Amino acid sequence: MSEKEAVRSVGAMSGTSLDGVDAAMIRTDGERVFEFGATEYRPYTAEEAATLRAALGRWPGDDLADADRVIFDAHAEVLSRFDGAELVGFHGQTLAHEPRGRGTHQLGDGAALAEALGVPVVWDFRSSDVRLGGEGAPLAPFFHFACAKALGTEAPLGILNLGGVGNLTWIDPTRARPEDEGALLAFDTGPANAPINDLMMQRRGEPCDRDGALAAQGAVVDGALELFLDEGYFLKMPPKSLDRDDFSVMLDLVRELDDADAAATMTAMSAAAVMRGIEHCPRPPERLLVTGGGRHNPVMMAMLAAGLDCPVEPVEAVGLDGDMLEAQAFAFLAVRVMRGLPTSGPSTTGVRAAVGGGEISRPRGYSRRRSG
Ligand SMILES: Nc1ncnc2c1ncn2[C@@H]1O[C@H](COP(=O)(O)OP(=O)(O)OP(=O)(O)O)[C@@H](O)[C@H]1O
Ligand SMILES: CC(=O)N[C@H]1[C@@H]2OC[C@@H](O2)[C@@H](O)[C@@H]1O[C@H](C)C(=O)O
To answer: Which residues form a coiled coil (predicted)?
Structure first.
């Protein structure tokens, strides 16, 4: 496909941290990114975040009108700030994720959003993957592949997202397409920031351990760390995925520790989960690029660097935007869905065969306008 066929697509992501909506425009044909464009962030008010938090764990059919309104209003507002968008990739808010059970639930009505914005919206990216036996997550890896190809390197590369949950994409950039055998391996590594945030809220009434300040004052308690690493999840072969609160056991493991030791130990747990994950990679990555909020935590970054044999750097080291990579991923995936290209495969979600997830909603009376 040529650059002339590329579209301006805006992705919107509301992550497991429930802090707000990230939105980013890229110009892409779903295979390559020709331009990284504007980005916007719309934080949730404390009241909105509380409404979303109260909805966690709920499934379609439950009364979710208030949370649905929060998602719709915040997304309509932030997405209306973009000029020239031809397509929207709308992730929604994950409320529950049980791929081997009840499925996966991202709150948000893409059809209503398409009407409000007057552009086609691709949404519900995860359900078809789950229906076909996949984990439904992570989905950013096909975008990570395009980012790695653009670097022009031949060496295996890791892209690690440290959000509420951590997820790792191992990439062999010598392969032609993300769905090619051996191109990717991806999975959730374990908890990243979510349990640390919960600890901080419980003990200090603060949303997170800003800059790892509390962890830096504490010591890692090995016994608790070892108990954590006994969790069966780490031995499980990838692909594999997690729900936000699957590792609430972490809080129990540090219950007896003082605040600083608890923060240090939990930070070490998140870092150790990544190191365990890297052992599953076909070959060790020669470089690990870190995206997501956890890259701002110097204690977590230092623990990773100390435990791994390759350089560990924020994605900014290669000119990417670690606060917006997931939003850009859903802009990219939306174009792939429009083109009928796969968005996940056996090595990224465990789905039986490469699949293009996502529902397309066009506003009534919509005919495609090109802005050149
Ligand atoms: N300066 C900082 N110091 C320590 N932690 C930070 C800092 N900045 C962000 N974080 C952590 O990163 C989290 C936000 O990360 P991010 O925005 O990547 O999560 P998310 O996108 O909501 O999650 P997910 O990727 O799991 O959906 C915050 O909740 C906080 O725990
Ligand atoms: C079910 C779900 O929403 N999972 C998220 C979550 O947040 C991080 C990790 O867990 C990852 O698996 C995924 O998000 C990213 C954007 C992904 O799909 O690649």
So the answer is: none
